[in-house]
């Protein structure tokens, strides 16, 4: 395991192991709130990923009992941090600060896995929704809780939520600010698996490492193809698929993968004869 070359900051720990970049939210005193320091640390680390050929998957997790509790309510009351200044200044700060995370996560060429323990509420819920695959512990809770504070999702979470659970359910979760547990989140497709609190990191790291073992160029293309296919016509998807497949069929990754497959197949046949 190696530390990521550019320090992500004290509020986010980072390391690379077997192709997996692990980013750990590490500000337990405020529930990993998305303040300016956390936002800059996380977005700064994410913005470097696409240029790193030793990173094949990103794992986002927390070091404390909560994943991310959203915005800091005390800062909201005092008008400090992200909430200070005029309407124009706050809007500009949101676009330049919090939205850096949204843009960086949605632009990742490599897959992202999120391990959610404890609260993922408000902007913390949105942060989890921005990742490609989410796992949760039995103690996880999710909420689009903005209306409780007279707010809306300010970092684009509504875009991701509607695409995951559908328009009607996204509207229900938004308008009620309902808290849902891990099993309810799984039934809605928000998380793909629920495990015990002790097993969460093990399961999430195992999944991220399995993903990262794939041929890197094909891995990035596979993610892009699925992502783009959700919003373009079939004809466009077919054009993309043909171009990507042609590149991969003529590349060394495919030839090496075929060679490994044939060797493994031959070895399996020998084992069955014994």
TrEMBL record:
It comes from Caballeronia arvi. SUPFAM superfamilies: ClpP/crotonase. This is Enoyl-CoA hydratase. InterPro entries: ClpP/crotonase-like_dom_sf (IPR029045), Enoyl-CoA_hydra/iso (IPR001753). GO terms for molecular function: catalytic activity.
